[in-house]
Each structure stands twice: as structure tokens, then as C-alpha cells.
Amino acid sequence: MRPIWAGGVLAALALLGSVASAQSNNVARLAQQQNQIQQLQQFETDTRLLANPDIPPDQRALIDFGGYFSPQYYSIDDSNHDNHGLREYDLVGYLHMNFDGANEIFILGRLQYNDFNSGDSFDGFGSRLIDPNGTFDRAFYKFDLQQYEAAYNGKQISEDISIEGGQDLVYWANGLAMAQVLDGIMPTVSFGQATITGVAGVTPTRTVDFEPDRPDFDFNTRRGFFGAMLSVALGQQHPYIYGLIQRDYNDRNLSIIGPITTNYSYNSDYFGVGSTGQISDHLKYGIEATIEGGNDLSTSSQVQGFTLVPVPQTRDAIYAFAADGKIDYVPQDIHNSRVTIEGIVSSGDQDRGLTNTTFNGNAPGTSDRAFNGFGLLSTGLAFGAAVSNLMVLRVGPSTFPFPESDTFRRLQVGTDLYIFGKQNSAAPIDEPTNPGVRYLGWEPDLYVNWEITSDITLTARYGAFFANAAAFQDARPRQFLYTGATFAF
After folding, report:
1. Is 133 exposed, middle or buried (0-12, 13-18, 19+ CB in 10 A)?
2. pLDDT tens track for 156-197
3. pTM of the full predicted structure?
4. How would you label 54-88 residue by residue, b for 16+ Cβ within 10 Å and e otherwise?
5. Residue 44: in which H helix or E strand, if any?
6. Which of 141, 171, 433, 488 is 20 to 30 A from 53 via CA?
7. What is the pLDDT of residues 220-245, one digit of tens each?
8. Where are the alpha helices (DSSP H) in 173-221?
9. Cα distance between residue 134 and residue 113, in whole Å
């Protein structure tokens, strides 16, 4: 049987993925408002290149603020086929200030209350207010040299340097290796057709770690990220190359279970290449491939007969890879239809017990070939597997079926169909499977987004994973249901 914590971890990860999906409308709304502000800034730059110092500063600042309240309901089957019921209530507020286009401040705070059915809590703490003192999901300051020179010195320069500092989401390329909220500095340098984007930061403490067996993985994580990406605009094509270093700064790196002591240390390096752009007016694409190096600690135990005994841990080299490619077909019809086809592949290690753990992880004295990144890719609502020893094919059409209806004009419906397999049939994924079986199963996901008014949005998600009976000991379907509403103000 799979350990109880592992089922909770997968369900929690699926929950986090659905929260991001369910609140996509809210983020899109904020992004739209920011785009409108940027358009206004561009208009002001074109009509008044030099800021008038005689105008009071409070009349030159662009200020946007607001928030939303979102009640949500989840029903989740974990990999042990235990159902979890959760009612979540989010209260979010934000403030966005921009001063002459050169200085930008953005703050987004959240209060969240989780109300679980009896015994359904993932972490055992039950229903509670998350961070009663409030949390900042985003809080950053950004300076733009090009805008500064235009506003205060009347100069138009072709090169640009911008520096962002604070807490923000860093999302690189397709999101294969890097999609993390960080506290740090994110500089960007542009010259000619080239842009260099850098990052140096550490995850906020409450980040959920990728290693579900590490003590306090779900609320005490400290990992540092340092890297740079070079991209070049060649017409409608934007090829890029990046290097990323991840270092383990966690202080909860020791677990003692009976006679078995497990130390944790996972330090990884990523080197990636790819490109985004347009093939035609109707076809857009994104492709990313990365190799992973670095080192980690091996498993701390092994089975002898019917007994689990401790073994010395060794520090082993990581040699892994992953790739993601997707193409969007946009017919540009009145329904705003879109069809996305995406493929994901990531390497696995056949001498591991599970692909993303240290306990029951890599065998001592061997290279670790299991890819473990820090990105964010869609692997289904109900299955939600880690991108490690995984192959995924996704086909996802979506449309607005009633564009001429006043009531249902902003009603979007869509589906995602997934087919799952192992990259290495003899290697594990993030839950127990039978070795030697490549095909894992398939999953259909359905979703509805309905923007009733500019301030009220309803969202629903449903997914069901149908496992291959040859791959799983228990092949019963797993289901995931989400419904939510957003009231903006």
C-alpha cells in the first residue's frame, strides 16, 4: 500500500493546481487592468515625453486598487481513493501604483480559510485560517531606466535596464524547469534584439516542496534560485537559452523513523534551450528542453528479507532530462476558439523506489537519472503526477459558444484530454506502480468559466483519471470536482 502521506501530497498538489486554474480569471482581470495602465503610460509617453515637474506628484501617479472574495468547493479522490471535501474562502486585495512609468509598486495580499469535512484535512491540522496575520502573494518594486530617462531627462534610449525586487512569480519559457514565487531580485537588460533576464532569490517559507517526504515540506521550504536567460527576437521567432542553479537551504533536513535516519540535500542545475513564436497567423508554438545536473543524497534504507534496514547515504550525481512542446491553433473566429496540443517527456531512474523522494529514493552509489524540476505544467486535475519519469500527451479545445448573447457572451467551455505513460517503464513515478508497464491511463477534464458581469465570475472544473489496470494495483477511477465564484470589488 502507498504511504498515507503520499496520497495526501498528490491531492494537495492537485488542489494547488486547481486553485491556480480556478483563479485564472482573477489573475487575467488584474493583468488586463495592468495592460490598460501600460497602454495609458505609452499614450502619455507619446504625447508628453518629458514629465512636467510643476505637476504635483500625486497627479502624475497612476493608482489602481481593488480585490475580490471567492468561495470555492473541492471534492478530491487521492491515490488511495479516499475522498476529501473542502470549502475554501479567499479574500484578496491588491494595490498597483506606477509613477511616470519609471517606478512601479504592486502588492497583493490574501486571507484564506479552509473548511474541511471531518477527517479530510491533508495535513491533519483540520479546518483553520491560513496565516491569520495575512500573507502577501505578491509584493514588489520595479524600476525602468528607459522610462526614467524619457520622463525626467527627455531622452529616448534604445537599450533598457529594469530591476525588480520583492516577491513575485518567476516563470521561464514553458514552465518546465522554473515557475516559482521568489523573494529576490529580477533584473532585465535589453539591447538590440536581445534580452537577458536574471534571477537571484529564495522561495517564501510556505512554499510546498517537491520532496513530499522531507519534514515540514508543505509549510517550511527554503530553496535558492540563481540564473539567467538570453532570448533573441528574430522576426516572430524568439529562441532562448538559459542556465539555472538551485540550492537547498532547508533547515528541516533530518528525519528519524525508528532505526532509520534520513538526511536531505537536493542541489540541481538546469541548462535549457527552446523557442516561442508564430508559425502562421493561426499557429503559435512553444518548445523547451532542459538537462539537469547537480547532486543529491541517496536513500537511507533498503529491504532485507521482510525487514527495512538502514544503509549509509551517498552523495550522487544527477543526470536527467525533460522536454515540453505545445502548439496552439487559433482560427480567429467570433467564438475565440483555441485548440492546444502539448507533449511532455521527463526521464526516470529505475533503481529508485519513488521518483521524487529521498527516503525510498535513489540507490546508494548510483547516478540519479530522475528529472525533478521546479516548473508548472498541466498533468491533469485528478492524476496530477509530478513531471518525473512521465510522458504526457494533451489535446485541449476551448470556445465561447454564445458570442452574440448578452447573458452568455463571456461563457467559455473547454476540455483537456490526457494520455499518460512512463518514459522508463522499469522506473517509478511519484506513486507505486507495477514495473515494466509503460501505459498509465487517460483522463478527460472539463471546465466552464462564466463571467456574468465584470465583477462576478463562476468557474467549474471536473476531471476523472482512468488508470491502466496493468500499471496500478487499484485501478478504480479517481475524480476531482471544483466549483467556485468570484465577487470583485
Report:
1. exposed
2. 999 999 999 999 999 999 999 999 999 999 999 999 999 999
3. 0.86
4. eeeeeebebeeeebbebebebbbbbbbeeebebeb
5. helix 24-47
6. 141
7. 999 999 999 999 999 999 999 999 99
8. none
9. 11
